[in-house]
Amino acid sequence: MTRLGDLERAVMDVLWDVVPGTSDGVTVREVADALDGRELAYTTVMTVLDRLAGKGMVQREREGRAWRYRPAASREAHIAQLMLDALDLGGSRDAALVRFARSVTGTEAEVLRAALGSEAGLSPAGTDTGGADALTDRVDPPAGRRPAGEAAER
Question: N or C: which end of the chain has fewer CB within 10 A?
Answer without folding.
Answer: C
